[in-house]
Automatic annotation (TrEMBL):
Name under which the protein is recorded: L(+)-tartrate dehydratase subunit alpha
Alphabetized UniProt keyword annotations: 4Fe-4S, Iron, Iron-sulfur, Lyase, Metal-binding
Cofactor(s) listed: iron-sulfur cluster
Reaction it catalyzes: (2R,3R)-tartrate = oxaloacetate + H2O
Species name: Campylobacter mucosalis CCUG 21559
Class in the EC hierarchy, top level: lyase
Pfam families (UniProt xref): Fumerase
Classification of source organism: Bacteria, Pseudomonadati, Campylobacterota, Epsilonproteobacteria, Campylobacterales
Amino acid sequence: MQKSIQKMTDVMAKFVGYSGKVLPDDITAKLEELSKKESSELAKTIYKTMFENQKLAKQLDRPSCQDTGVIQFFLKCGANFPLIGELEQILINSVLKATKDAPLRHNSVETFDEYNTGKNVGKDTPSIFWEIEPNSDKCEIYTYMAGGGCSLPGKATVLMPGMGYEGVVKFVMDIMTSYGINACPPLLVGVGVGTSIDVASLLSKKALLRPIGTQNPNERAAKTEKLLEDGINSIGLGPQGMSGSSSVMGVHIENSARHPSVIAVAVNVGCWSHRKGHIIWDSNLNFSIKSHKEFSYE
C-alpha cells in the first residue's frame, strides 16, 4: 500500500510541475492555428514571443508563467479505486512536492490571517472537486493551474427567466469586453448555465477542461458556443489584448437542468498559457496521460 501511495504521489507531483512548463497538446495546436490567421506584424510578433517562451520553459525546465496559480483537481473517481481513501492526501502531498521540485510560486494565502503558507497548501487548498463513479475501479484526474489574472476573477450572476438565453449571451459579452482584455488573450472561455450560482460556477470551470474543438452535445448549446465565439472574436482583442483577428481559442458551455424561476450563469476564462492536465489511473496504478503526449515519468 505504501509503495502505491508513494508512486501516485510522485507521478502526480511530476505531472503537475510538467503541466506548468509544457502546454497541453490541444492548446499548442490551437495557438499555432490562430497565429497563422494573423495579418498584423504586432500580432505575429506576440505569437512568436509566446512560442519562444514555451520553448525556453521546456529547455530551462521552468514554469512558462510566473503565476503558477492555485492548483485545482477535478476527480472522476471510481468507488472501487484502491486508493480512494488516501487520494486527497496524495494530491495534497503531490502539490507540496511539486512546489519544491518544479518549482511553483507560493500562491496560498490564508484568508483573514493574511500570510502566505509558502507551500501552496492551506485551508482547502489545493482545491479538490469530487465525482464518485459507481462500479468503477479507475480514477480520472484533471489538473488545473488557476491563475490570478484569468479564471480566478470569474464572474457569476442569476438571471430572471424572462431574460432568456439572450441574457446569458449578453452577460458573457459584457464580461469579455471588460476584464477579458486583462486575462492574456487568446482565451478559452468556459460558461456554466444551471440552477444556482454555485452549480453554474463549477460548470464554467469544468468547461475549461474540455479538449478544444469539442462541442456541447445539446444542439442549441453548441450553436450558442459558436455564436459567442464569433461575437467575442469580433471584439478584436487579439493576442495579449493588443488587437488581432482572434480573441479566443474557443467557447465551451456546460449546463445542468434549472429551476423554472432562475437561469444561473457563470464565466471563467483560461489565458493563452492554459495549464490543464488530464491523467487516468487504473486499479493496478498504471496511468495514461491524455493531455501531454510527451510526458514521461522515467
